[in-house]
Amino acid sequence: MAFRNRRAANLPAKLSRSWLLVNAAKPEDFAPALASEADSVIFDMEAAVPDDKKDAARDAVVEALSTGMTAWVRVNGIDTDFWAKDLAALSKAPGLRGVMLAMTEKPEQVTYTAMRLQAGTPVLALIESALGIESATAIASAPGTFRLAFGVNDFRKDTGVSGDPLALAYARGKLVVASRVGKLPGAIDGPSAPGADAAEVLADSAITASMGMTGKLSLSRTQVDEINLGLSPSTDELSWAHDMLDAHAAGATVGDGSYLPRLARAQKIADLADSYGLWNA
């Protein structure tokens, strides 16, 4: 706990907006990431680490998670030579919050992963291919699946689609609908470019929110604030929710069939604002 941002440490992962990926081969970056405003931090043992450094990176992660740090960990795909080693090493790490499974394409991959960890360890399924997208509903309903995340860059490589929001709308929408069917928290979008500035990250986060996704991966600590801002209730929404709840508390009467749905939305905004520390900001 000494390493972790206190606000973020107290936030349930089902509400996490920003998911910061940290290269597991660079343990000097672990503490700064955990001290940042990222809602969730993921030590990345997969894409960020070349094969000849996997063992050293895994050792660094286990050491960190055994000496006071808490984090999620991205493990290698089930079809690699590293998957079983990753899970065996992490299964007894006291600071493990959950794992992100790279290249998830089938529901049983999530279940097999969960079975190799301590009971109840959540698995975040990273979907990065056409097959994964088409299997998203089944993956969302698999035992062990906690949330779905979108591996945009690998999906684009697999399918040849561009980065235009319209080209990616089907895949994003599929993850959103699958999450709802599977009764999971909102889907997590892929990251902005590592060098994207604040305006670009805010624009990307607006797309994420418009698609119904409630989280976003990040490759840089400098982008976390914009992701949190872009995926939180806006100032206008907070003001509207305040007014709606105040009026209801003062005895406002139900005027039409939209009143109760609006009241429920106002309460949801208030609950999120409380969780994110925005309500009295």
From TrEMBL:
InterPro entries: Aldolase/citrate-lyase_domain, Citrate_lyase_beta/mcl1/mcl2, Pyrv/PenolPyrv_kinase-like_dom, Pyrv_kinase-like_dom_sf
Gene3D superfamilies: Phosphoenolpyruvate-binding domains
Signal peptide boundaries: none
Entry cofactors: Mg(2+)
Ranges where the HpcH/HpaI aldolase/citrate lyase domain occurs: 17-218
One GO MF term: lyase activity
Pfam families from the UniProt entry: HpcH_HpaI
Keywords: Lyase, Magnesium, Metal-binding
Protein name: CoA ester lyase
